[in-house]
What we know:
By secondary structure, the protein is α/β, with parallel strands linked by helices. 33% of the residues lie in helices and 16% in strands. The chain has a single domain (19-284), classed as Thiamin diphosphate (ThDP)-binding fold, Pyr/PP domains (Rossmann fold, 3-Layer(aba) Sandwich).
Amino acid sequence: MATSYASDIKPIWCPGCGDYGVHAALNKALIDLGIDKSKIMIVGGIGCSSAMPHTFSTYAIHGIHGRVLPIAMGVKLANDELTVIGVGGDGDGYGIGGNHFVHTARRNLDITYIVMDNQIYGLTTGQASPTTLIGTKTKSTPFGDIEEPINPISVAISAGATYVARGFSGDPMHLAELIKNGILHKGFAVIDALSPCVTFNALNTYDWFRQRVYKLDASYKAEDKANALQKAIETETTNWQKIPLGLIYKENRPTYNELDITLKQGSLIKQPLPTKDQVRSLLDGYA
C-alpha cells in the first residue's frame, strides 16, 4: 500500500495558502483508501488550485479554464473502472464552469469534485469570484462587490448531486474524511473546500472562518433533502455568521453509467469497435 500519493513535483502556492491543506487531505484520503495509483485520474482546470494534478503520482490531466468536469466526464464514460477526481477553484468551477457543474450534477456521474473555494480569483491577483461576498473590495470591485454570491451547496443539491459536503482546509483531517467518503460514494460527489487565499483575500482568512465554522453532529440527517437545503442556506440566513461543515446531503441514485444503454454493457474501452459495415449502416440512416 502506498505511503503517499504525492509526486516529486512540489506546489508553488503562496506560503500559508489553504490549498496545501486540501492537498494534504486528498493525499490522506487516497492513502486510507489504498487505491492503485494506476486506477486514479485527477483532472484540473486553470487557477492556483488546478496545479494539483501535477503534485500527485497518479494519472492526471491539466485541462483548460472551466472544463474540469467535461474532461472528467469523458474519462469516466470511457473507463468506468477509474477513480476520477476533479479539482479546481471557485472561479473555475462556479464561474466559467458553472454550466458544467449543474449538468454533471443532474447526470450523476460517479466523479468526485473538490472545489478549493477561496472567494477570490487568486491566480489573476485578486478579482471578485462567484463566491465573493457582497461589499467585498477587490481589484475588479474597488467600491465593493454588488453581486449576490452563488451558494454552491444549495446549487449542487438542487441540480441533483448525490453527495454534497463542505470542509475547511484549516482542518485537513476532517476534510480528508469528507473526500474519502465522497470517493467511496457511487455518484457525483461535491466537496466545497473553504481554502483561504492569504495573499489576495484579506477578509476570508483562517481566523475569519474559525470564528464561524462548526461541524454537523451525529443527529443531523443528511438524507433529508428539504432539511439539507435549509442547512445549505444557513450561511445566508445568518449573514455568514454560521457555516456548517460536514456531509450536508446524500442520496443513493443510479449513476449515468448504470442507466445508459451502451454503458450498461461495460466500459467503452472494453467494447469492440464498430465494423465498417456497422458504421456505413449508421451513416446511411441519416441519408
